[in-house]
Design a protein that fits this description.
By secondary structure, the protein is α/β, with parallel strands linked by helices. Helix content is 32%, strand content 22%. Bound molecules: flavin-adenine dinucleotide.
């Protein structure tokens, strides 16, 4: 079937999956596309923790959708949040409008998983978005300043101690960066705190940090973190936190006012999509063409979809940038092929591997093909190359890039300013 009429595709979410879908469908005549996102910018989550620790500015890892779409004339942007879908009427209900679609592409990603514990959600610092990163930056910097004027050792240590939940790449990267900062910047710029630094704890429920990586990466990462002064607690869960203490499943209580949450993600359900369409962890079950099961004309790509027919990934593809990017590209190509009456191609995931950086000058990389483990300087160079490549492609901010590299290599970042909208001058 060759499309004779223009069809309207509505894409919910301009993250890795949504944006690569948009790139692929741009300029394809038979389609007009509306990109809907609750933010007016795309964000590069792998470097969010560098904003949280003051190494990068928010604008360095974000990009406005309207600028991105400037020359992509068959695509419009709508700032809004998806709240409900009516598959029968082909309607997407947003927080501020209702849009008719011919095809709906759901690419709204995932949210932090607090495993139903509202107290943890309320009190901890989430680490998922740029807004979270700014929240974390403010909280940690304010804790440091407060600690400088407190003389009670117990209170001081509570303010300076940070517990990180989740020993995946995000938790490991935050722990490493905080360890690095404690040994460099805090020593240099906070002379009041030299003798009382508090602790950095990394807590994970599985038997090792980076449990999805190779044993060598797990071992290298743990050794490096311990050298940076991070205390690793595995086979342990956080059961509660109230801003005063973290309680662990082994009965240990850690006195702290700072709990950073990087302990996994889940997906929020969409009203109107039948419950049979959802699989494990709230992900939408899709076929090999990313079509959501049991509803017509709705597709899902990225973190929010679950495709289990890939023999290499029977529990679904990992919730990482690469599957999201590749699914976005494949689906866009399939829409173009559909318009030309060509047969569609099923999604095939090309695993490129996983990596994590620990502190500012160590990394671990597990390449998929060839199956290879890297650590030390080669791993750091691979990590730097991939992220620098991204920063250049994202927006041509060479000056930013230069500043970042200098700050990164010297460990002397200067973005340690508390910018809090609550503190306006209202005299
Ligand atoms: C801190 C952090 C570090 C990470 N580091 C890495 C890494 O190093 N390597 C790696 O491969 N992966 C990493 N990941 C995972 C990776 O970011 C995700 O797998 C990837 O972003 C998934 O892409 P996506 O397009 O599905 O979702 P996202 O990229 O999360 O995009 C979802 C988009 O949907 C929008 N949205 C959400 N809900 C709605 C709604 N209701 N209405 C409208 N818009 C909505 C959001 O604003 C967002 O723009 C990291 C994740 C985090 C949180």
């Amino acid at each position: 079937m060759i499309l004779s009429q223009t069809k309207h595709i509505v894409v919910i979410g301009g993250g890795f999956a949504g944006l690569h879908f948009i790139r692929g469908i741009a300029g394809s005549k038979p389609y007009t596309v509306t990109l809907v996102d609750k933010n007016n910018y795309n964000q590069f989550t792998p470097l969010v923790y560098q904003v949280a620790t003051g190494f990068l500015e928010p604008s360095n890892i974000s990009y406005p959708f309207r600028k991105f779409l400037r020359k992509r004339t068959n695509i419009r942007f709508h700032l809004g949040e998806l709240v409900k879908v009516s598959p029968e009427e082909h309607l997407a209900y947003l927080s501020n409008a209702t849009i008719q679609y011919d095809y709906l592409v759901l690419a709204f990603g995932s949210v932090s998983n607090f495993f139903g514990n509202d107290k943890l959600r309320q009190h901890s610092i989430a680490m998922k978005t740029l807004t979270d990163a700014l929240g974390m930056r403010n909280t940690l910097l304010q804790s440091l300043e407060q600690a400088c004027s407190i003389h009670d050792e117990g209170l001081r240590s509570k303010l300076l101690t940070v517990v990180i939940a989740g020993g995946g790449p995000t938790g490991v990267e935050i722990a490493g960066m905080l360890g690095e900062m404690r040994n460099t910047i805090i020593q240099r710029d906070y002379p009041e705190l030299k003798d009382s630094m508090g602790g950095i704890y990394l807590v994970d429920g599985s038997k090792a940090v980076l449990s999805q990586m190779s044993l060598r990466s797990q071992k290298d990462a743990a050794e490096r973190l311990e050298k940076l002064g991070v205390k690793i607690l595995v086979n342990t869960f956080i059961t509660s936190f109230d801003h005063e203490e973290v309680v662990l499943s082994n009965g240990v209580h850690i006195q702290t006012s700072n709990l950073v949450w990087a302990a996994g993600v889940t997906c929020l359900p969409v009203e109107g999509i039948p419950s049979v369409s959802y699989g494990k962890n709230g992900r939408l079950i899709v076929d090999r063409y990313n079509k959501v099961c049991d509803v017509d004309d709705i597709y899902a790509i990225g973190d929010n979809c679950l495709e289990t027919s890939d023999a290499g990934f029977p529990n679904g593809h990992p919730q990482l940038a690469q599957p999201a990017i590749q699914q976005g590209k494949r689906l866009a190509d399939n829409f173009v092929m559909m318009a030309n009456g060509q047969p569609l191609k099923p999604f095939l995931y090309h695993d490129k591997g996983v990596m994590a950086v620990i502190g500012k000058n160590r990394a671990v990389v597990d390449l998929a093909k060839p199956r290879l483990h890297l650590n030390g300087v080669p791993a750091l160079l691979v990590w730097l190359f991939i992220h620098i490549n991204f920063l250049i492609a994202y927006d041509n901010k060479l000056k930013t890039l230069f500043n970042w590299i200098v700050a990164y290599l010297t460990g002397d970042q200067s973005l340690r300013v508390v910018i809090d909208s609550k503190h306006t001058d209202d005299r």
